[in-house]
Structures are given as structure tokens and as C-alpha cells.
Amino acid sequence: MSMPSSYAEARAAEPGARPTDILVRLSQPHWDAACGHRFTRELGADTLSAEVFGRYAVQDHLFVTDLASVLGHLIARAPGMTAKHRFAAFAAMLTSEENDFFLRTFDQLGIEPQEAARMPVHEVTRAFAGLMLSAAERSYAQGLACLLCAEWCYLTWGVREAAEVRPRRAWAQEWIDLHAVPAFRSFVEGLREEMDRTLDAATPEEQEAAARAFRRMTELEVEFFDAAYS
Ligand SMILES: Cc1ncc(CN)c(N)n1
């Protein structure tokens, strides 16, 4: 069977599937490459080089800062209080607990915060910011597709690695735990339900645009992990 090339075609081929499962199908093989990237497996096995994680953490701190801005757009555009609260609560977590993780990790890895702030923004980090921010400015569905992709991908590998023997290094443990705890699982399930509803109500053009944004995000997730090794 050939791969469907559009959201409409994939939905027609599988009318019973959740719309969000269709987004993943249309993003293969990049989705599996992102969720199964060697970075995630080495992190779980505690074999990831601290140098690679340090490079990744500096860029990811920038990514998360941009993600907090995307959440601002989504709070403004969300259709009701339940969705606004979900984004606001996640933004509060990113800007406190998760931000503290980065600062602690820089300290553990001997990276001065001023040194991290001076490091050049990698082209993949820049591409992520361009994609996510312009998507969220264009529409709720496209911004939500970017957020869902980022968080669902991290949940997928986080839950897988959390089921294995715990790594010894604090930053490896904490980065896995943050993406596998029950609160994060229910956050991502809430995002999926919101995206399912939003896609069902969207115009065909918006459905295709959201599917393209989700797929481009999965490609960038792979490139972002790759970049930490170079
Ligand atoms: C690049 C990337 N993608 C997703 C996540 C999960 N918030 C992250 N921290 N960094």
C-alpha cells in the first residue's frame, strides 16, 4: 500500500482512526526516527556523553524559551477556559521547574549561564523557532500541531526509557522523569483530545496545514538530536 500524501487521503483510508494518529502516520519515517533517536536511547542507558548533553541543553534551553512564547499565542487563541488553563499551567511549569532543571544542569556540567547565553543559536534551533512561532501566529490548529508534536514525541521516548533501569547521572534521570511523570502523560493526552477536536472542526486547508506543521516538527526533532553530536 502506498503512503497517503495528504491528511484527507489518510483520513479516507482510515476513517476510524484518531485524527492525531493520522498526523503521526503522515510524519513517518521521521516520527519513529525522532522517538527512537540514539540520543534518547543513550540518555536512558546512561551512556550519553556529558559533552553531547551539554551542547543539547544549551540549545534546548533556547528552544524551551521559544516554546513558552508559543504557549502565549495558544493561550490567547484557545477557545475556552479548559484549554487556556492547560496551556497556562504548562507555561508555568516550563518557566519554573523546567527552567530550574536547565540552570542546575549547566552547573553540574560546568557551563556558566553567561557562557550558555553567549553560545550561537544553532540553525536547527532557529528553524524550530521560525516554524513554531509563525504557525502559532497563523492559526490555533497549526500552533497546537507544533506543540503536540514536540510534547508527544518526548512523552513517547520518556515513558519508554523510564521503564528501564534508572541512569545514575542526575541530569539524565531528571530529563527522563520530566517527560514520563503522570502529570505530563495527562497533559499530552489533553493536547491530543484538543487537537482531535480542532482537526475535526477545521477546514480541509487548515487540516493540511496542521499536518504539514506536525511533519516538519518531526523532521526538526531528528535534526536537533543529530546536531548535539556535531
Ligand atoms: C527540541 C525539543 N522538543 C521537545 C521538547 C519537549 N518539551 C524539548 N524540550 N525540546
TrEMBL record:
Keyword Hydrolase (UniProt): yes
Domain Thiaminase-2/PQQC residue range list: 28-229
GO biological process: thiamine biosynthetic process
Coiled-coil stretches: none
Swiss-Prot/TrEMBL catalytic activity: thiamine + H2O = 5-(2-hydroxyethyl)-4-methylthiazole + 4-amino-5-hydroxymethyl-2-methylpyrimidine + H(+); 4-amino-5-aminomethyl-2-methylpyrimidine + H2O = 4-amino-5-hydroxymethyl-2-methylpyrimidine + NH4(+)
Protein role: Catalyzes an amino-pyrimidine hydrolysis reaction at the C5' of the pyrimidine moiety of thiamine compounds, a reaction that is part of a thiamine salvage pathway. Thus, catalyzes the conversion of 4-amino-5-aminomethyl-2-methylpyrimidine to 4-amino-5-hydroxymethyl-2-methylpyrimidine (HMP).
Family per record: Belongs to the TenA family.
Identification of the protein by name: Aminopyrimidine aminohydrolase
Organism expressing this protein natively: Futiania mangrovi
